[in-house]
Amino acid sequence: MSGNDLDALLRVTSPTYRGKSPPDIAFGTYDGAVGRLTLAVTARGIVACSFEDENRVFEQVLKHVGSFIGPDPRRLDPVRRELDAYFSGRLRAFATPVDLSLAMSFARTVLQKTMAVPYGTTTTIEALGELIGRPRALRAISNALAGNPVCVIVPCHRVVRADGTLGDYAGGVAAKQHLLTVEQRASAAR
């Protein structure tokens, strides 16, 4: 989707879109090593870094976060630069604050604990279950990870199956493997 297409979409679908005024929610995309990511940034932080289609993410943000949505490079470009640095192995921790407004309460708990998984390492769903005090909630934890609205930055890719296999990932198994490989190489180089 080009900038003009996105601007046209925003004009039609966002009831309070004001064109050149800075929006409450910055919305755009990032094309990187694992494909296109749809980004949305609120005053609180990044609310979406998603492999999902821009229209779907836009609808979720509109429904759950706010309606004054538009392109805002001054808020999106720092996230894009951090993603560039991450994918090149130069960034181990994102400075951009995370806004988990698109996650439900239980999912928010799971994702917050996922953010504590160290760069270059992995954990299991079972270990996350123990960590949050819900060792039998494996399906709910898996669903929370699958619904992560802030992929890459909230590192659900660091959660693997108990047998060591990668398991599913919103961007696909190849994307998950790529993210883990970037982190492992950067960790080994230090």
From TrEMBL:
<dbReference type="InterPro" id="IPR036631">
    <property type="entry name" value="MGMT_N_sf"/>
</dbReference>
<dbReference type="InterPro" id="IPR001497">
    <property type="entry name" value="MethylDNA_cys_MeTrfase_AS"/>
</dbReference>
<dbReference type="Pfam" id="PF02870">
    <property type="entry name" value="Methyltransf_1N"/>
</dbReference>
<protein>
    <recommendedName>
        <fullName>methylated-DNA--[protein]-cysteine S-methyltransferase</fullName>
        <ecNumber>2.1.1.63</ecNumber>
    </recommendedName>
</protein>
<dbReference type="InterPro" id="IPR014048">
    <property type="entry name" value="MethylDNA_cys_MeTrfase_DNA-bd"/>
</dbReference>
<comment type="similarity">
    <text>Belongs to the MGMT family.</text>
</comment>
<dbReference type="InterPro" id="IPR036217">
    <property type="entry name" value="MethylDNA_cys_MeTrfase_DNAb"/>
</dbReference>
<dbReference type="InterPro" id="IPR036388">
    <property type="entry name" value="WH-like_DNA-bd_sf"/>
</dbReference>
<feature type="domain" description="Methylguanine DNA methyltransferase ribonuclease-like">
    <location>
        <begin position="27"/>
        <end position="100"/>
    </location>
</feature>
<dbReference type="Pfam" id="PF01035">
    <property type="entry name" value="DNA_binding_1"/>
</dbReference>
<dbReference type="GO" id="GO:0032259">
    <property type="term" value="P:methylation"/>
</dbReference>
<feature type="domain" description="Methylated-DNA-[protein]-cysteine S-methyltransferase DNA binding">
    <location>
        <begin position="106"/>
        <end position="184"/>
    </location>
</feature>
<dbReference type="GO" id="GO:0006281">
    <property type="term" value="P:DNA repair"/>
</dbReference>
<dbReference type="GO" id="GO:0003908">
    <property type="term" value="F:methylated-DNA-[protein]-cysteine S-methyltransferase activity"/>
</dbReference>
<keyword id="KW-0227">DNA damage</keyword>
<dbReference type="InterPro" id="IPR008332">
    <property type="entry name" value="MethylG_MeTrfase_N"/>
</dbReference>
<keyword id="KW-0808">Transferase</keyword>
<keyword id="KW-0489">Methyltransferase</keyword>
<keyword id="KW-0234">DNA repair</keyword>
